[in-house]
Structures are given as C-alpha cells and as structure tokens.
Amino acid sequence: MSKKLNIGTLCVQAGYNPGKGEPRQMPIIQSTTFKYETSDQMGRLFDLEDEGYFYTRLQNPTNDKVAAKIAALEGGVGAMLTSSGQAANFFACFNICEAGDHMIATNNIYGGTFNLFGVSFRKLGIDVTFIDCDATDEQIDAAFKPNTKLIFTETIANPGVQVLDIERFAKRAHAHGVPMIIDNTFATPVHCRPIEFGADIVTHSTTKYMDGHGTTVGGVIVDSGNFDWDAHADKFPGLCTPDASYHGIVYTQKFGRAAYITKCVTHLMRDFGAIQAPQNAFYLNLGLQTLHVRMKYLTESALKVATFLKNHPAVAWIHYPDLPGDTEYERARKYLPEGSCGVMAFALKGGRAVDNKFMDSLRLITIETHVADCYSCILHPASHTHRQLSDEQLREAGIAPDLMRLSIGLEDTQDIIEDLTQAIETALK
Ligand SMILES: *Cc1c(COP(=O)(O)O)cnc(C)c1O
User: What confidence score (pLDDT) does residue 388 get?
Assistant: First the structure.
C-alpha cells in the first residue's frame, strides 16, 4: 500500500487488499500446515530459496497480513507477531545478543521486561546494565562495553510515563555501532513513530492499545531496515556470517534490509515457537482498525481527567506528559505532538493508606493489573505489580512508592471524573 496514505487509513486497510470476490474482512487461516505438489517445492522452502508457508509455528498468512499492517503503521520493512509482548521483547534482543554479550536498558521500563533482562537474561549469560532514562550522553557512553550489542528503551515508560529523548539515545547507540530497540506500546504508531527519530527496531505489547478491548495477549517486532549490520559485522555474526542451520546462508546477503526480521522468523520462531494464534491475530486486526479513533478520544479524555486531578486540592502530585508545566511536557511536544496516551501517574496527599482507601472506593474505574484498553483502570505498583521491591528499589526503577497508575478508557469523561471525585471524598473522610 502506498506510503502516502495517512495513519488512519493504514489502520483500517494496510496489510490486506482483497481481490475480486474475496472476503472484505481479513480471513482467519486456521491451518497448521500448507500443501505442496512436488518434493522439490518443499525442499526449496527449507533452503529459504522460495517464499511460502509450510508450518504455522513459523508463519501464517493471517499473522503476516496483520504484521504487514503494523510494519506500515511504524514505517518499517517488515514485522513479526509473537504470542505476547514479553516474547516480542525477548526475541527482539535475543536475535542479536547471546551468552557472553552485554546490553543496555533504561531502568524505568515495564516491570516484566525489567525482570526478563535483570533475571532471565543474566541466567542466559547476557549481561545487562540499567541506566537512567534521563542519563546524560556521558553516562550513556560510560555504560558501553566492547561486547555491547544493543540499547533497549520505552517511548513512554510504564508505569512512570516518562517520555524518552529518542533521538539522543539512538545517536549514542549508533555512535557505538549498535541498534536501538524501543518498546512503543503506550504511544502506539498513531502518536509516535520512533523509526522517524532514529530507532532501529520497534516492539509492542499488542495486548494494550493495539488490541484495545482486553481480549487478546500478543506482541510484535518491527524492523526499520535501517541498521547497517554489515558495517558492524564483527558484533553481529548471527546476521553477517553463514547460518549452518540453513545451509550456510548469510542473512544480510540474502535478505538485505529485511535481514534482522527474517532471522527472527526463520530462526527464533522456528526454535522457540512463541507464535501468535491466527485467531488472535484476527482480533488484533479488529483492534487496529479503530486504533486512530480510540487514541484520539482517550488522549483527549485523559487530558481532561489529568487537568481535573492537577487542580484537586487532595492530589499530592501528577505526571501526565500532555499537561502544560509537566516535566515531560516539552519533550512530549516533540515526540508526541498529537498527544501521548491515556495513562497517567499520580498520588493523593496522605500516602499509601489514603491511596488504598481511594482505590477501594472507586465504582466505575476498576483495580486491574492491565492498562491501556477500553476500560478505565487503576493500579498501585508498590502494592501490586512491584510488591517485591523495596521503596529504594522502586525509586531506582523510576516509580514513587505512592504512585498510582490511572489508565483512561473509552467511557464518558464526565462519568470518570465523577467517580474520581466521590472516591477522593470517601478516602478523605
Ligand atoms: C504489558 C507490557 C509488556 C508485556 O506485554 P505482554 O503482552 O503482557 O506480554 C511489555 N512492554 C510494555 C510497555 C507493556 O506495557
């Protein structure tokens, strides 16, 4: 589909273009395998000499159409759906990082990713250095080692909603000959396309806004095609030297700009199999078809709610990148000119006891570990998702101990504000 189309049109139509008499809505290809007519045809698929489907553990036509839509939204050369956001971030890094290697990540990333890197990657022999999301150039440079393979960041951090200076981090990564991977879950490509600011690989938990209805866990990896792996061939032997498991092909030679994402599919998906079910890809596509409409509505709604909270005398502090005067405001105007997302972080005066009474008194807004879908919901990381951390560790992860994460859904804004009003009144009694 033409690149000139605007994002809303891509949300609805990219990735699938039916011919005469074909279904208007994207069909679900619910089949594990695919038929061939000669032994040679099948053999060529296994040598990566021909393109074609053979087994849904690696690739499925429904998944690929949805992945192509997301690649178009982000402006990448290719994409791969995964069974979850966790699988996406695992594959995105493991595709170019192995035992004995080192990577850098910002410290305010989603708790699940923090644990994936800080605990599981270390068990796999991959060393990780966490740096502050506001680290200076000198501090970023100091984190690099000769065996560093990537920098991992988030556009808008979950749950602290800090906005990353994408261009600056990408520049430091490139100065050291490594790609920047960015998790763009909260912003979505409707509000930020990190590749335009120099990011090389973009990931999502599609479970959040992209699905948007709380139905389907999933993830995606998008390859910009911009990183020159061969220019740093010594760092990336998996992409730039022969792969014995595919008759010695060299990914960069055979697949050019799509080398990274092709290896993700043909190597990692083949070996680890964390594929998204085609049925789930279908649900994800339904979500994507309204993503631009939902992001606009819920970001406008969130700004009204944030303004209400900022002006409420019981509120101790609030962070929302679109609020004038917020620490993130200036940076958000550059990277998120049409608004950030529906998520904000705030605390009431009086600490955890008041916060807890407040949450228990909410009627419309529900307590959930989830975030970023059509239902307004709230979470207190220190009591819930990040319970195992001390106050000191929480602060190191960019999370104030009294922080509540409020995610604005698609309900009527006035009803949300009235629910907050009555719950604050009850909590202060
Ligand atoms: C939820 C989330 C993840 C993990 O995704 P799952 O789909 O739950 O596996 C990763 N990154 C961010 C920013 C998230 O919010």
Answer: 82
